Amino acid sequence: MTSVPPDPTFGGEEESICLPKRPRMEECEAETGDTRRTTVDVSVIIPVHNASCWLEECLQAVLNQDFTGSLELSVYDDASTDASRAVLESWKEKFEAKAVSMVISGHHSAQPRGVGYAKNQAIRQSSGRYLCFQDADDVMLSQRVSLQYAAALLQPHALIGCGVRRVPEGSTERYTRWINSITPEQLLTQVYTSHGPTVIMPTWFCSRDWFCQVGPFDEGGKGVPEDLLFFYQSLRQGGGVARVEQCMLVYRYHEQAATHSVLEETIWKLRVDFLQERVLSQWESFTIWNAGKQGRKLYRSLSPANQKKVRAFCDVDENKIQKGFYTYQDSKERPKPRIPVLHYREASSPFIICVKLDMTEGVLENNLKSLQLTEGVDYYHFN
Question: Is the model's pTM score more than 0.85?
Answer without folding.
Answer: yes
